[in-house]
Amino acid sequence: MTTESANAGSVALKPKQLHVAVGVIIRDNQVLLSLRSKQQHQGGKWEFPGGKVEAGETVYNALARELKEELAIEVVSAEPFMQQAFSYPERNVLLDIYLVTEFTGQAQGLEGQPLQWASFAQLSQLNFPDANQPIVEKLQQQFM
Ligand SMILES: Nc1nc2c([nH]c(=O)n2[C@H]2C[C@H](O)[C@@H](COP(=O)(O)OP(=O)(O)OP(=O)(O)O)O2)c(=O)[nH]1
Ligand SMILES: [Mg+2]
């Protein structure tokens, strides 16, 4: 059930929360990042690839679908890492973050987006959406 339908009919509607499946794709101690296009929300910033969970979809399935659509990779193995809620002035997000520890295929920016592999230390130097700060910190604590 989406947040919206769960709240349908209630008096005080909660702000809409967008559920997002996010993949921290790790290979050889590096993480795959994708540049959000200028037209997107939080455009021009680096992201961990992923996208919105659709109605009736598991987070894992959403993650696998998005990584195939955006990067042409097939998830073989992924595990939950953390959840991060964040309120931007214009929307509330719930990031459902998975570690993608095994995948097949060579990552390409299928939507024309630049990609880069970054070390865990390099993550501190890059511009991410504000919601990502705790994710970067936890990754650095765990993997550096
Ligand atoms: N994928 C991703 N989204 C993030 C991250 N950090 C962060 O705040 N977000 C936010 C930005 C967006 O508001 C939302 C993701 O939505 P999106 O619009 O990119 O989702 P999508 O891939 O389904 O995109 P679209 O087809 O609607 O263009 O989550 C992140 O690291 N990765
Ligand atoms: Mg996306």
Automatic annotation (TrEMBL):
Sample GO molecular function, one term: 8-oxo-7,8-dihydroguanosine triphosphate pyrophosphatase activity
Binding-site residues, 8-oxo-dGTP: R36, H41, E47, F48, P49, G50, N132
Domain Nudix hydrolase positions: 15-141
SUPFAM superfamilies with a match to the protein in the record: Nudix
Name of the top EC class for this enzyme: hydrolase
Organism taxonomic ancestry: Bacteria, Pseudomonadati, Pseudomonadota, Gammaproteobacteria, Chromatiales
Pfam families reported for this sequence: NUDIX_4
Cross-referenced InterPro entries: Mutator_MutT, MutT-like, MutY_C, Nudix_hydrolase, NUDIX_hydrolase-like_dom_sf, NUDIX_hydrolase_dom
Domain of life where this protein originates: Bacteria
Binding locations of Mg(2+): G50, E70
Protein name per Swiss-Prot or TrEMBL: 8-oxo-dGTP diphosphatase
Record CDD domains: NUDIX_MutT_NudA_like
GO biological process assignments: DNA repair; DNA replication
Listed PROSITE patterns: NUDIX
Assigned keywords, A-Z: DNA damage, DNA repair, DNA replication, Hydrolase, Magnesium, Metal-binding, Mutator protein
Catalytic activity: 8-oxo-dGTP + H2O = 8-oxo-dGMP + diphosphate + H(+); 8-oxo-GTP + H2O = 8-oxo-GMP + diphosphate + H(+)
Enzyme Commission code: 3.6.1.55
Similarity comment: family membership: Belongs to the Nudix hydrolase family.
Cofactor(s) required, per the database record: Mg(2+)
